[in-house]
Amino acid sequence: MVALSFKVFAAALYFTAVSALFTPQRRSTAFFNPADGGGSMLDNAGSGGGEPLNVIISGLSSPAVLTDSGILNFAKAIGFSTECLGIHIGDPQSANLGDGHGSVNQTTELRQDFSDPNLGTCLESAIGGNHFRIYRQNGPTANSGALFLAVSKEENAAQSHTIVPDGYDIGRNLLVASAVGATSFNGVNYMTVAQNVTGLLPIGSAGINHGIAIDGVVTLLTVTIV
């Protein structure tokens, strides 16, 4: 009986340890400033300028939100989805988040879905709308798990999807407005709070892609599954 109890205890301990390896763990910090590790809050747009990383999904969010599948589900809860028929036109952009990984290509790019998460992004591709790129801060020197988003509102296909005037600030504000408060998708309920952070991005148009001026505000979103 003692031997059997020990085996049961050992098995329980093993499965607990294995579960911990595969279960996302809550981080201890919201994010690290990329500049502190030699990175930048501007991505590399490949044209001599950068797009501002103007929204951060905090590392203090529910761990499941920060996974690839988790951020996609949250994105669908706030009106975004994967690109039209999975087709991406144009080269991916990269960013250095100062986490020891150097410059890394975007994890994915999501577009406004106009209330149709299956085909709505095809409409966005045609008529324009909001979209964002995702970069994950998870390197060996700054592993916050936070997601840095480059959000912007773009023109229609006829205008080659260039950014609308003031499109970086507009895109950020539209995304934040759709995210704050209670949202849900696919049976997952979220509560999101926002905090504006200054001092991470410059003010003005210097170094910004397309020469579009920005107000220098980054919005930090903490997303909790409830």
Write the layout of secondary structure elements.
Layout: H1 2-22, E1 55-57, H2 68-77, E2 80-81, E3 94-96, E4 103-105, E5 108-112, H3 120-127, E6 129-136, E7 147-154, H4 167-179, E8 181-185, E9 188-197, E10 218-225
Parallel strand pairs: 1-10
Antiparallel strand pairs: 1-7, 2-5, 3-4, 5-6, 6-7, 8-9, 9-10
Keywords: Signal
Signal peptide: 1-20
Number of domains: 1
Radius of gyration: 19 Å
Residue fraction in strands = 15-25%
Question: Spatial order of the strands in the main sheet?
Answer: 2-5-6-7-1-10-9-8
Terminal Cα span: 42 Å
Derived from helix and strand composition plus strand pairing, the structural class reads alpha+beta
Please provide the ordered H/E string of secondary-structure elements.
HEHEEEEHEEHEEE
Gross morphology = globular
Instruction: Please give the largest β-sheet.
Output: 8 strands, mixed
